[in-house]
Amino acid sequence: MTESQGVTTGHRSTPIADRENAPLRPRPWRPGVATAGLMGLIAIGLAVAVAELVAALGVWVGVLHVNSSPLAALGATFIQFTPEWLKEQAIQAFGTNDKLALRVGMMITLAILAGLIGVLARRSPRPAVVLTVVLLAVTAAAVLTRTGTGPIDVLPTAVGGIVGIVFLVSVFRRTVVRDDVSVGTVTATAATAGGTTTDTDRSGAAHPMLAASPARTTDRRTFFRMAGVGAVVAVAAGAVARWIPSTAEVAASRDRVALGAASDVQTVGDVALQVDDLSPFVTPNDGFYRIDTAFTLPRITAEDWQLRIHGLVDREITLNFADLMARPMLERMVTLTCVSNEVGGNLVGNARWQGIRLDDLLAEAGPQAGADAVLSTSVDGMTIGTPLAALTDGRDAILAVAMNGEPLPVEHGFPVRMVVPGLYGYVSATKWVVDLEVTRFADFSAYWTDRGWSAQGPIKTGSRIDVPKSFDRLPAGKVAVAGVAWAQHRGISAVEVQVDQGDWVQAELSGLVSVDTWRQYVYQWDATPGLHTVRVRAIDDAGEVQTDQLAGVLPDGATGWDSRTVTIV
Q1: Considering only CA atoms, which of 352, 413, 353 is closest in space to residue 379?
Q2: Closest CA to 218 of 274, 265, 176, 168
Q3: What is the CATH number of domain 264-451?
Q4: Residue ranges of the Oxidoreductase molybdopterin-binding domain (predicted)?
Q5: C-alpha angle 481/485/486, rounded to 5°?
Q6: What mean pLDDT is reported for the chain?
Q7: In the CATH scheme, what architecture does the domain 462-568 have?
Q8: If you average pLDDT over residues 363-371, what whole number do you get?
Q9: Counting beta carbons within 10 angstroms of the beta carbon of residue 417, is it exposed (0 to 12), middle (13 to 18) or buried (19 or more)?
Q10: How far apart are CA 339 and CA 18, in angstroms?
């Protein structure tokens, strides 16, 4: 028996044979930072989707509260702790798209956290699991702060969290470094004629570079296969959660509402002015502004809706939707205005509302001496304080069930909302209302008043120029200066227009419907070439002229004259 250059003859195996017969080990591979971050995003996305699916199913079968949605709870908490100045900036920057901006901002924040979780799991799942548990605890706390929720309502958060953690660990535990296994003996050589190349030196020791290489138990293909499965399941769960019957039931419930004719209908007639690009006298439902704190639209059917009237009253009253619809209805044209409406803003709209009188309902309950407020609460926990006098002084304050001849759109309060002429929405226009407590202002602090807004918000006289637009270039001659003016529950008696520093001249007004609606106006201006500024101001029925003093929306509404600068050529 002879040996030559490390090759053994006879029945003894050779190093080359050993290498050829050795079992193949996985190629060492660790996901990069970006890949790990993507996997974290998929894991948290899966957790959120499963949680939302469980919440939707729980609401559908009646074991969970409508406020059990983790995303909705986080959104509400995000809104609650957002500084007031930042909320106003969002409303002014995004208008009625402020909810979309909030969703995008929250999703970006969640995506960053998810990516960080994935990066942490790259070396060891333990710190990633800890951060995930912290995120779940915050979410559970947010759910428990929502009106009407209890311990059972954290179930969706818990189930989603468990699914996300199991997925995360099952993926990354197969790619973490294992110090007990080395690939120093794994062959990385090939035989050549006349000799061999090995991964050991002449003393038989493993090559130092290979000896330092950590072994892993999975490969790139398995990793990405699991990522794909997780992403598909997350998308599917999210889609099912969105279209679960609880959402469909609300739409079906709305379709089943038979309005019938109101017994007291306001005569409107053909009062609108016909001017190109002028706001229509009646704002269509899909064009009506929406400003509220609901991160996701509350889902309550007419069949499940119930209203409780209690507090400082002689008789507590509970009504369901059928009770409400059996009462005499009235229909009124009322203009609503948001307190966040800046000078010249579009957070104002006019609509036909149908419902029952609040003064009649409160009279049945019998407010007690000393009561001066009604604290209304929506199904999602929003609270609004309204002066009791504004609900009992004879104005057309109503519990509305219809808007412009159809059941309330979900985004505008279906099945029932409050409409109170003369007050900004933040102290009167509670959507999805389910509770009215007769009380005293001294005994509570409502959502917005708790954040620095005035407790009582009468609407200030306002006006807006719709046409021309700022910086328009228009031909000389007749130019229509047109827009709308409002002073709800006082009425508009005149609108005046000024060009540059000239005299104020009266504009033509649309027909009068009531003191609770806006009025359109138009002034036919004989425009001459040059750069000009046009201004507008309104006068209410008491003769009070709209103030020119500029003020922001906080704490009780903006003031000042709207203006447009145009070039006449």
Answers
A1: 413
A2: 176
A3: 3.90.420.10
A4: 296-442
A5: 175
A6: 86
A7: Sandwich (2.60)
A8: 98
A9: buried
A10: 82
